[in-house]
Amino acid sequence: MPFKEGHKLSGNRKGIGNKNTADLKTAIANFTLGKFETINTLYEELSPKEKADFLTKLLPYILSRLASIEATGANGEALNFTINLKPTDGSRDQQGVLPDTDRPE
């Protein structure tokens, strides 16, 4: 059988996860659940900066990373749009600019 373009010779089908990765995630989750009280006690002993560092390093393992997107029009050209603001309390004019008398100095 000759090779045809687009024919995949081996590996998982597209979208099928790696079994080793799933097993590792499960093992890490089980380990951390068993140590939750210890981790919580140690967390409370950290300085505010260390707490922020801890959470920053932990979040990528908890939350999925969001991919950035770029919005374009047909054929990839830039999108052009206008936003018109209407005052609800009369304190701003129609362009959304403060009247001269209300501007902070």
How would you characterize the overall build of this protein?
This protein is mainly alpha-helical. The protein has a domain at 19-65. It is 38% helix and 0% strand. It has helices at residues 19-34, 36-44, 48-62. The mean pLDDT is 75.
Low-confidence stretches: none
Shape: flat
Helix-and-strand structural type: mainly alpha
Q: What's the total helix number? A: 3
Largest sheet: none
In what range is the share of β-strand residues? under 5%
Report helical residue fraction: 25-40%
**How large, in whole angstroms, is the Cα Rg?**
27 Å
The total strand number stands at: 0
Distance between the termini: 80 Å
Task: Reconstruct the topology from this structure.
Blueprint: H1 19-34, H2 36-44, H3 48-62
Write a concise keyword list for the protein shown above:
mainly alpha, 105 residues, 38% helix
Put the structure in a nutshell.
The protein has 105 residues and is an all-alpha fold.
